[in-house]
Amino acid sequence: MRTSLLVALTLTVLAGCTSGSALEASDPSDNPAATDLTDALLTERSPTCAEHAAAYFARATDVGEGVTYTANVSVTTDGTTCTIASNAIPNHDFNATGHFATPVSEQDQAYTVVVTPAFAAAPTPISLDYDDAVFLNGVKLDLLAAGCYGVGNGHIGCHDLGTPYRYDPMGTQTFGADEHHAHTQPDGTYHYHGNPKALFDETDSGVPSPVIGFAADGFPIFGSYFDDGTTVRKAQSSYQLKTGTRDGGPGGAYDGTFVDDWAYTEGAGDLDACNGMTVDGVYGYYVTDAYPHVIGCFMGTPHASFRKGGF
Length: 311
Hints:
- By secondary structure, the protein is mostly beta strands.
- The chain is built from 2 helices and 21 strands.
- The strands form 6 sheets. An 8-stranded mixed β-sheet has the order 11-12-10-9-13-14-20-19, with no helix packed on it. Strands 2-4-5-6-7 form a 5-stranded mixed β-sheet, with no helix packed on it. Strands 1-3 form a two-stranded antiparallel ribbon.
- The radius of gyration is 19 Å and the shape is globular.
């Protein structure tokens, strides 16, 4: 286990897990050397996945169902790639405000990223064929919804990316997402659709955000804050809401309900079309308040392990 991560890890422990609690007394993970990641706020900024190699566990409660789970995560490396394996249970309580169509269930998932990512000849669009990223708590990021206006019930069945008016789960409350912008897939996999509201300090603390995960192309994902050379502030997306009203479809003003409501305007913010930028020689994606929330496209080549098994 790398000491850099252990030193950098700041644990905020729930009130119910104070000294003498069952969680402390009995390590519920399969690895007695694993680190408790329950409600952890990370601080390590190393962009190299190998620097985050370690084993973790956490206790997380599905508040809506009153069920407590044990999350298990491991980050391993062979020097060329890193594998982030987990049971897809987050390191924080969840579903206090969600309306999940399917109950959460533990998974057996593993994602591989390259230690040294490189820019591709051209960006790769995000799609429904690939998961977009995996966070260091072992939960994946799956930004796009398979729901479009006028297709079925609007929530599922829209797999053609050319279909207009695709709903943005971050722009509507109809997908049953919880307080962490997450919900479940039909097989019970818990996944985020945007800012996980976890793993990094979202207050204006004057400190740049840590690495909280890795995109499918291997580039790191940082929290929202970066040092612009003068001050530490939130990174701003360069996507802007279109002006006017929608032509056809659902009609109405552009308000962010649909992915189509947004347009990339170079230079409008800090980030490129993929929602990334280079700071101190390191390219990474940033969590933003506005669309595309984390990743707009891949600057590198997504690893095959992120390809979904099919619809």
